[in-house]
Amino acid sequence: MNPFTAITANSYALIIWLAYLALSSWIMITRRSASLTMTPQRLRTEHALLGALLLAHAPLAFAPIAMTPAHFGAREALSLLTWLAVLIYWTAAYLIRLEGLQAILLPVATLSLGAALLLPTGHATPWLAKPLMQVHFAIAMLSYGFFAVAAGLATLMRLADRALHHPGRSLLQQLPPLLALEKLLFSTLSLGLALLTATLTTGAIFAEELFGRALSFNHKTIFSLAAWLVFATLLWGRHARGWRGRTAINWTLAGFGLLLLAYIGSRFVLDGLVNN
Q: In this structure, what are the phi and psi dihedrals at residue 123, rounded to the nearest 5 degrees?
């Protein structure tokens, strides 16, 4: 049963978007202020506020797939992907210095949720009630989440590289060292690729049982395989050829773009333009 009516769901989505906008604006403004130093207490406050926002966002992210039948499309995918990416960052920030990523991730999350507000509600997906599909779906969304964080890290690396030539930019002064970001990027890509491999494998194995036909090479499959090939090539290049820096950044962003086209892009066309 849907815990939200259409009106309350849209209102709640708007409130969550405004909360992300407020938090990201506050962080951006304070990070630009040279008079404010990033004390451990301040970082803990930011982290606590982000954790509270994640809790508030969770019902919006999971309500559509808790419906009977579940509804899922580009709008719901953007919301759930944003929640997962922010959750991965929020969890990792307990162990690794990542405060610089927050100034990138939150504005992007705000833009993603703003875009989701402009899209129609997704189509009915009764196959999400099947346990096999739930396994496949969970692995796929986790993969998207890790690659979203990797894309954020790649963007942060580009900013860190520019900061080396523009040391006066106060917003970039809190960025982690470039080598640390690069190491974290490849660790994140390795996890994401393992999950994407599992996604493609389970999709191929479960396709006939779930849909009554063998895996078809549609646009979603082709873009997903292309993204897998980009990320696998990048990781091979890292170990075999020592690829790093701008090469890693460009390949990461290209691969993530292909992943977005694989599902969110296709659902945007079907839900938003074709209204399938």
A: -80, 165
